[in-house]
Amino acid sequence: MKVEGWVFNKSMSKKITIEEVRKTAELARxxxxxxxxxxxxxxxxxILDFFGSIQEVQSEKVEKFDHYQLNNNQLRVDEVLEKxxxxxxxxxxxxxDQENDYLKVRNVLNKSNS
Length: 114
Hints:
This protein is mainly alpha-helical. Helix content is 35%, strand content 7%. Helix 1 (18-27) crosses helix 2 (34-55). The longest helix is centred in the middle third of the chain and has 22 residues, at 34-55.
């Protein structure tokens, strides 16, 4: 089984590098100590090894099982729910920054805001 360059085979498993752990932590905006970097590297290696062991399970003779079958469309009726009076005004009144009918939030995707 291959997933973006990873081969899940216990004898040929690719090891997670500390650089990959650092890059993942940076993307997740998590600060890790050197000890945590080492621990996460080992933990992720163990997880990949576990997936490799699952891959070794003989499943060719197991009958395919679909956990659901959509023989008929499963639809629900759309219902318009009435908002309690004053709900929208109350939310807008408690929100710190607005522009027209939009509630403004702080930009969370730029590195400069971290």
